[in-house]
Amino acid sequence: MGETHEKSEPRGRLSTTDWEQAALHVLAEGGVSAVAVESLARTLGVTKGSFYWHFPTREALLKAAIDRWEQRDEDEVISRVERIADPHERLRELFHRVSREVQSHLVYAALLQASDHPLVQPVIERISRRRLALLTQAYGEAGFDARAAAHRARLAYTAYSGFLQLNQSHGMPRMDQ
Prior knowledge:
Elements lengths: L15 H15 L6 H8 L3 H7 L3 H25 L4 H12 L4 H11 L7 H21 L4 H25 L7
Helix pairs in contact: 1-4, 1-6, 4-7, 5-7, 6-8, 7-8
């Protein structure tokens, strides 16, 4: 995450985290290309100087925001689900989580659309490998042989990715309604 500058500012000023969260919100709504310093500053009600206090470039903000999202995804989804001992319950919990629209899914869908971006591509690859491994392991522990477990994991993950992309591009109804 190394490109951010942790400088202390007087109380009431925006933090690095504020900028990263604002960038993630914009990314979720409009994609990677929508993350722009001037519009973020306007939205946050500050000058561009506040941005440059924390980040040297837009790419540094984008990287920090994506890293924050990836870490939160790891903490809030993967590590929590991995702790569930019963593989059937683990799969149920995973499917429950992905069927509810949350900002994390919107960010992921936006990242999928920008998967050729040099900052995005390695993140998509890491997340996909981790999620496929988790699914494959759960299906294997649920009684499927290695080949069938891997096949089911790919199908489930493909359905998830497709669901997100359809939802984003066609405004499909949320599953939790």
